[in-house]
Amino acid sequence: MSLAGKPQGRRSQNALIIAVAEQENTHDDFLLAALNEFLVNIAAMKRSQLVSLFIAVSLVGGSQFARAADPAHPDQPIVPPADALSRLKEGNGRFTAGNPQHPHESSDERKYMAADSYENPGAISLGMTAEQAAKRREELVKTQHPFAIILSCSDSRVPPEIVFDEGLGDLFIVRVAGNVLNDEGLGSIEYGVDVLGARLIVVLGHQSCGAVDAAMKTIAAKGKAPGHIQSLVTAIKPVVDAMPKGDLDTMIKANVKHVMDVLCSSTPILKAKVDSGDIQVIGGYYALDTGAVTFLKGK
Q1: Residue 78's closest CA among 142, 18, 146?
Q2: Which CATH superfamily is 81-100+146-296 part of?
Q3: Predicted TM-score (pTM) of this structure
Q4: Strand partners, 203
Q5: What is the per-residue pLDDT across 32-76, written as a single tens digit (0 to 9) for each?
Q6: Would you say residue 177 has pLDDT above 70?
Q7: pLDDT per position as a tens digit, 263-298
Q8: What's the half-sphere exposure (Cβ side, CA atoms, 13 Å) at 26?
Q9: What are the boundaries of each domain within the chain?
Q10: What is the per-residue DSSP string for the chain?
Q11: 161 band by pLDDT with thresholds 50, 70 and 90
């Protein structure tokens, strides 16, 4: 049955309802096709009934059937913040225990290394086979669905994928010395939230952060760092000014919380999602000596 020949008012109502479904980021072609067919069959419904349908469709975007924002793969479920945090904690636990699984990577070379390892001569390597890893890479050519966003320091001793024992396509990572936030970093995080569908943001600081240490010393000496390094000092200065007598470790954690606050208050994208509980922003502190990440209270 075609909509052709129906009153123009009916077509306008139907188009409006479909537009609502699209606006709510369902991105589900099957749903829209089914909805269109359904609307054809109920063309004779009363206005009050159409209003009820309008409300029901609007709820789809915020319901338990929410999907990641990638329209090419609407079947990928969004990972809630609590579940994402659990995955990070589990991964860091494997890392600190010396039992990383290296998910979404090939296990073939690790098996060889484990067999010949002096420290772990009998280790069993987990993870994916070379064939499975190749399939995973092929999938990632078309799309990505990271379950968490990590804003971390550029320090070579703190690679998030290793620290949290995650693999290809699992984490959306922004790295800059001192885990400070600039427009490019903020835009990247917004992209991870608004386009890729990640619902957890972690600001990850670490023990003995050189950027924070340099900022503290430069500010104390009333000096200026060379070149563009001064931009890092400028970004960290509000934290140092607020705690002029703080030690390095205290300042590193305060810097993490400062960046968290900036993210939580960032408009127009992040603040509304934080306030509604759609996304969560938390902090983390990585201990170089133990490999453990301590999570700081977030919003």
Answers
A1: 146
A2: Carbonic anhydrase (3.40.1050.10)
A3: 0.69
A4: 151, 283
A5: 554 455 555 545 454 445 444 433 433 333 333 344 444 444 556
A6: yes
A7: 999 999 999 999 999 999 999 999 999 999 999 986
A8: 21
A9: 8-60, 81-100+146-296, 102-141
A10: --STTS-HHHHHHHHHHHHHHHHTT---HHHHHHHHHHHHHTTT--HHHHHHHHHHHHHHTTSTT-B-S-TT-TTSBPPPHHHHHHHHHHHHHHHHTT----TTSB-HHHHHHHHT-SS-TT----SB-HHHHHHHHHHHHH----SEEEEE---TT--HHHHTT--TTTEEEEE-GGG---HHHHHHHHHHHHTT---EEEEEEETT-HHHHHHHHHHHTT---STTHHHHHHHHHHHHHH-TT--HHHHHHHHHHHHHHHHHT-TTTHHHHHHHTSSEEEEEEE-TTT--EEEEP--
A11: very high
Indicate the pairing of strand 280-286 with strand 293-296: antiparallel
Q: Which residue from 109, 104, 111 is spatially nearest to 134, judged by alpha carbons?
A: 104
Give the amino acid at 195. V
What are the tens digits of pLDDT across the range 228-271?
A: 999 999 999 999 999 988 999 999 999 999 999 999 999 999 99
